[in-house]
Amino acid sequence: MKDMRVVEALATPNAAADIRVRGWVRTRRDAKDIAFVELNDGSCLANLQILAEEGSPVFAALAGAQTGYALEAVGDLVESPGQGQRWELKAREIHILGAADQSLYPLQKKRHSDEFLRGIAHLRPRTNKYGAAFRVRSEAAFAIHSFFRTRGFYYVHTPILTGADCEGAGEMFRVTTLPIWNETTRSNEEDPLAGDFFGRECNLTVSGQLEAEALAMGLGRVYTFGPTFRAENSNTPRHAAEFWMIEPEASFFDLTDNMALAEDLVRHVSRHALEHCAADLDLFNRFVDNGLMDRLRSLAEGTYQRVSYGDAIEILAKSGRKFEFTAVFGQDLQTEHERFLAEEYFCGPVTVFNYPKEIKAFYMRANDDGRTVAAMDLLAPKIGELIGGSQREERLGRLEQRLAELGRDIKDYWWYLDLRRFGSVPHSGFGLGFERLIMLLTGIGNIRDVLPFPRTPKNLEF
Ligand code: 4AD
Ligand code: MG
After folding, report:
1. Residue whose CA is at the smallest distance from ligand 1 atom 21
2. Beta strands in 211-302 (DSSP E)
3. Which ligand is nearest to the CA of 430?
């Protein structure tokens, strides 16, 4: 007897005697004299059809097995006379591994809404759509690692507990072991944090960039791929409180190298998905977003455009389009602006570069014009900002000056400034939001549906 996963069984070139499959019943249909069970084991989108003839011991073993049951079946893989599949399993033995009370099991054959399925996030991996989404997620992660590996980037691990606010946006989750930590206890004590685990303020990281820069100053090219936390109280389809970010950081890269790296990465992952996730992508193209395949093909093979922030503002101003927010130089682009640029003006991915310094983080390299920094955002159709990055300010004096302008205490940045004090070199990097990438690859419109267990404001079930 040979164990086979459904994906192997369906792809087998020849009939196979005496195999065993295990999985979950998607549906059961009883025809005259025969029961058909559609078995799925997560190895692919398709199910394996299992046949049990009425009156046989297998039929009896199947008993009341219905949607949601876990079972194993042993038998022969034979050519299927039916439509839609090449192989089916003629069962000789069936064992129920786990029953599922039909009066309680919430997943039935009909299509369920995304909202309903979010409420049963522990069961939704058993649906076609979420199974497909999480398989694509896994493939995309693999493609990212292989992309960086072939380009000489080392995978590094930066801390999740940090004392620094990389982005300076104040969107951090505080971590403490103190029993109650509030403003009252704070004012009653000299130094309320003295008794805390670290003896100082600790937060969940909003970005591994600052530490990645230190690693890039020794290893040359590095990238992180890890969980990231932001206490942004914005309930949008594109923001999660816990998400995964990929952050490459490369010594000797300038902004142009950085933009090219970002474009190549998106191109590589899109190609990989087209090659390795065909069945799952077809599902998304048919049921979720019917422009998906065209868009993916253009991400894989088409051109990526670039435009300066100043020119982008002009394009938006001259577009004749009524936006909710008017685009003016000096203000951040809104999602509506980003989507207009990527979807309607450039009709594809576009990188906006050289943003005004006021709207960007302290570490970005000052341009000679005195008002912009060497920042870049890669905007994608349907998503808006997919990637944000920059060339870093490598000049000690300039960096200290910028921190002072922003009213920061340069003592807090002692080690980061050391990187500019000792062997400083031009370097660049960016952050790619992994969930936004999965949204782009699947056409799924809400970030809550590409994370197995999403964390958003007022939502911490599971
Ligand atoms: O643009 P951001 O804030 O850049 C940084 O954090 C830099 N330190 C990255 C770097 O240069 N190393 O975030 C980068 C990307 C965004 O473009 C977006 O795709 C994603 O992270 N992102 C989020 N994704 C989901 N939920 C959120 N709340 C996100 N915030 C940012
Ligand atoms: Mg950004």
Report:
1. 433
2. 221-229, 242-251
3. 1
**% of the chain exceeding 70 in pLDDT:** 98
Residues in the chain, overall count: 462
Based on its alpha-carbon atoms, the radius of gyration of the chain, rounded to whole angstroms, reads 27
Q: Which residue puts its alpha carbon closest to atom 25 of ligand 1?
A: 239
Angle at 401 between CA 398 and CA 403, to 5 degrees: 110
Average pLDDT over residues 418-426: 98
Per the listing, tokens 């073993």 go with 61
Q: Is the pLDDT of residue 248 over 90?
A: yes
How many Cβ atoms sit within 10 Å of the Cβ of residue 426?
A: 18
Q: Ligand 1: which atom is nearest the Cα of residue 378?
A: 17
Evaluate if residue 82 carries a pLDDT over 70. yes
What's 111's DSSP letter? P
Nearest ligand, measured from the Cα of 448: 1
Pocket perturbation via mutation, ligand 1, pick of 225, 243, 245, 416 by most ligand atoms within 8 A of CB: 245
Q: Is 319 exposed, middle or buried (0-12, 13-18, 19+ CB in 10 A)?
A: middle
Which ligand approaches the C-alpha of residue 390 most closely?
1
What does the mean pLDDT of the chain come to?
95
For position 100, what pLDDT does the model report?
97
| Spatial separation of the C-alpha atoms in residues 61 and 223, rounded to whole Å | 53
Q: Give the 3-state secondary structure of 295-343.
A: HHHHHHHCCCEEEEHHHHHHHHHHCCCCCCCCCCCCCCCCHHHHHHHHH
- The H or E element containing residue 389 is strand 384-391
What would the DSSP string read from start to end of 394-412?
--HHHHHHHHHHTT--GGG
pLDDT, mean of residues 109-116: 92
Tally: H helices and E strands in the chain: 14, 17
Cα 429 to ligand 1 centre (Å):
12
Which has the closest alpha carbon to 207: 236, 172, 251?
172
Cα 247 to ligand 1 centre (Å):
9
Which residues are CB-neighbours of 407 under 8 A, at least 6 positions away?
none
